[in-house]
Amino acid sequence: MRADSMPAVTVHCLGNFRLEINGVPVAHWRAGKARALFQYLLVNRGRLVHRDRLHEVLWPDSDDRSSSSLKVAVHAVRRVLGTHQKDDGFQLVHRDHGYMLQARSAWVDLEEFERAFQEGREAWSAKDHQRALERFQTAADLYTGDFLAGETGDWINEQRQWAQSVALRALAVLRADSLEREDWPAAMHWCRRVISLDPYHEDTYQTLMMMHGELGELGRVRDWYELCRRRLSNDLDTEPTERTEQLLASLTRRGERSLGPALVGGPALVGAPSPV
C-alpha cells in the first residue's frame, strides 16, 4: 500500500493495544481512564454511548454518575487525538448525553478480523470454498493474540471470548481442509493454534496423536496424550475420554505400521465443519 493511501489511524486490539495516528505511536494518555475510554468507544465506533454506560464500564464499583471523572477522561482523549489530528482522523463527538467516536480513515485489526470471517462465512454458504478458505486464513493471521491482552474488565472479557470463539471457528475449517488434503504440516500448525486458544480441546489432541502416528512418531503421540491428560487433570479435574485412551492404545500397538484406517475413521478428521 502506498504511503499516501495509508489510513490516518491504525489500531491494534488483538494482542497488545497499539494506536498510531499519522504514523506516530501514541504512548501517553495523560489520564488513567483515557485509554480505557478510547478502547470502549473504539469497539462501539459510530454508535452513541450514553454517559451512564461509560461510567458503568469505566468505574463499575462506583454509583456516582455525577462525577467529573468522565469529563476528565474525555478531555484527555481529545488532547491525545488532537496531537496529530487531521480531517480524516478520529473525532470524539458529544451528543444527547453521550459520546461517539467517529473516523473516516481508520484501520482497526478487530474490525478487519471480523470482516474477514464474515466474508468467509458468506463465501462458504455460496459454495465458494476457495474464497472462504482465503478469508478464514486472513482472519487467522489477524488474530495475533487475545483482545486487549493483559487488560481487565467485564466488557473486555466478553469481547475477548467472542473474538476467541470466532478465531476457533476459522481455525477449525482451516484444520479440516488441511487434513482432507493430507497436508500434515499445515494441519499440525492449525491444531497448535487451536490448542493455544483452547488448551482443553480434546478432539485436537486426538488429531495430533493420529497425525504423528501416521508419521511413525510414537514419542510425539505419547507427548500429546500426556499434555492433554495433564491439562485436563490439573485444570479441570477430569480425565481424557475413553476414545482418547483407546486411540493411544491403538497407536501404541500398531507401532510404525500404516494408520490410514484410523485417520479415515476418526471423527475429528472427517469433513470441514461449517463456520456458520
From TrEMBL:
Residues 1-103 bind DNA. It comes from the Bacteria. Keywords: DNA-binding. Residues 1-103 form the OmpR/PhoB-type domain. It holds the Pfam family Trans_reg_C. InterPro entries: AfsR-DnrI-RedD_regulator, BTAD, OmpR/PhoB-type_DNA-bd, Sig_transdc_resp-reg_C-effctor, TPR-like_helical_dom_sf, WH-like_DNA-bd_sf. Belongs to the AfsR/DnrI/RedD regulatory family. This is BTAD domain-containing putative transcriptional regulator.
